[in-house]
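Hi all, long-time lurker, first post. I run a small reading group and we've been trying to get comfortable going from sequence to structure in the token notation. Rather than ask abstract questions, I figured I'd post a concrete chain and ask someone more experienced to write out its structure so we can walk through it together at our next meeting. Sequence below, copied exactly:
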Amino acid sequence: MDKESTLLKALGEPLRLRLAALLAAEGELCVCRLVEAVGLPQYTVSRHLGQMRAAGLVLARRQGTWMYYKLAEPNCPLQRCLYDFLADGLKDDPMVQSDQQKLRTMECQK
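-- Answer (accepted) --
Happy to help. Here is the structure in token form:
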């Protein structure tokens, strides 16, 4: 039950929930794109991603100077259910929609 409690605590903060929803919808994303999407400083986003990583929710990889994050493979039934919720249950949330729209706008500018 410790694993499940850790997962729920990690998603119990609104910013971490937003970041997880973005990763569930978009797949792997660079920290720079997450920063632009949520409109918060890089150090704030990185700190929350670090907490999510410690909880086993995300995986990180470095490519040059950039860090990329994606959701970790689920390792328990609760994690699978949470990922389904992140992908489908939050898709109509206004904040999540706004974050995703910012990502789409950034893609168009490239």
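A couple of things your group might point at:
The mean pLDDT is 91.
Residues 94-109 form the longest helix (16 residues).
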